[in-house]
Amino acid sequence: MEKAPGSPSVGGSCPQKTAEILSSQYGINLFLAGLVLTFAWAVHAVGISKSHLLSYLITLMLIQLLWMLWYLCRSCTQRRLIREKDTHAGARWLKCGITLFAVITLILDSFKIGYYVDFSNCLSAAEGIFPVTHAVHTILQVYFLWCHAKDIIQSFKTLERFGVIHSVFTNLLLWTNGVLTESKHQLNEHKERLITLGFGNITIVLDDHAPQCNCTTTTLCSIFSQGIYYLYPFNIEYHILASTMLYVLWKNIGRKVEHHQQHKTPFKFHGITVGMIFGLIVLISTIAKVVVYLIQIGRSKNKSELALTMFYLHAISVLALMCTAGIVALLIYRLEDRSLDNSKNPARKLDAELLVGTAAGSWLLSWGSILAIICAQAHPKYTWYNLPYSILVIVEKYIQNLFIIESIHRKEEKVNDDIKTLRIVTISRGSTLSLTPSYKEIYNGRAARDHGELPYLLHGSICARENDGAKAAASQANCPAMHSAPEFSFYSRNSVTNNKRRILKNIAAFLFLCNLSLWIPPAFGCRPEYDNGLEEIVFGFEPWIIVVNLAMPFSIFYRMHSAASLFEVNCKT
């Protein structure tokens, strides 16, 4: 039986599969141990303090730092060797995104150091060592990902599998720690706001981990303590992005790839003006909504209800527009006859799995809200807006996932070899007006499409070829311009294709900005799942809060990951 392209050699398949299984089990146990320790700290288990959790995380980061230094040193000594690269992994825009989040994470670490200095009398040494270690870890990891995210490791494979998977689960634990810390802060604020909505029958017990001593500088302490929680969303996104990039690196270890040149598709603003304008309107209105929501919620019962009503109406409008845009894009795909690319691609496979997997978080919350509305005995007016909102959340993610997954699996259109060698002569009224751009411009897609000039086909043949420029002018008299519709079939097909592509690019740009907009509210504390109070009455306060705290991080990550995928779709379209 013929071996499929891209598969590893038969001789090395069994040991490498064993190493993959062993390393994955090591990573899972590493993660579960940290998860249990995190849970024990969260519920104030006897004998478990925050210093124990931080000491565990510091140890994991130090081990990862040693492995990254080993890998970087070995790469420097083998710089002259030709290394295989996965052209689909570690895109430049993804590296720029993780760098931005990393910079904000470093600011967060500096705030934590300042917080430790102010409360040093009653904080453990681990709380001062952790932000310093984390800052060093962040700087080195971003450098590592910039230089080696595309690597396909072919030496020391067993050792590297353990090193990479250790890095993956270290970042996942740091993500979990950030999510838990930020969720506890949001929960405390939520408990204080419930009284203003009239839910006084819910027991309010604050989960307080504040240091038991006075701050040396009150003003600075307030700035550091409040600023930390506004920066956590960026820290959370940083670690989840790092873990996904490292996971792709782990999957690529020992992989055999076909050697072909990947055509680069840079992002261009040309042709997406409509999508960008509507997307920016959604983004600006969302920021305004979040500001008003955070100011009004908890002030009084009437103001809180108005804030919730405003949130639901705005979200319903945005989700309806996103559903419409997604359906239009899918209809365009149904009209096109283009095959899908089913070749092995770990980065693309992970993108699709993350889209569906993380969407389940918001689907869970939406179905919970729908059931609460149906089963509740009393319905405040604002809760009825929650019903269409929850339904649209489910439908919108369903449609958007179909659009993104099909887009990243569609094969790119190949340029005909004959077109690459032609220099087309445009003809108007029997006279030559100008020569169209050269082969390089045609191949890069800047010919005809951008200037509105398309080649005239003369009875199935081209009037002029690149090497026959002089003959072309002489033969124009024998090349009559044609005016009948069938003879302009090439022009028509190309025009329709360009229009479809322009629509798809505008839809991708619009959805990209919409997903960024929908990431902002939950990431910065605008969470009606906490504040409307109906679900807490139906399911009970603690059960519903547990569901929200488990599902919300996945819902937040979904929006950022969707935005990243849609950016790639826009570049590819």
UniProtKB/TrEMBL annotation:
The chain crosses the membrane at residues 26-47, 53-72, 93-117, 129-146, 229-250, 271-295, 311-333, 354-379, 503-525, 537-558. The keyword Hydrolase does not apply. It is found in: Cell membrane. Keywords: Cell membrane, Hydrogen ion transport, Ion channel, Ion transport, Membrane, Transmembrane, Transmembrane helix, Transport. One of its GO terms (biological process) is inner ear morphogenesis. The keyword Repeat does not apply. InterPro entries: Otopetrin. It comes from the Eukaryota. Its main location: membrane. One of its GO terms (cellular component) is plasma membrane. GO terms for molecular function: proton channel activity. Belongs to the otopetrin family. This is OTOP1 protein. It comes from Nothocercus nigrocapillus.
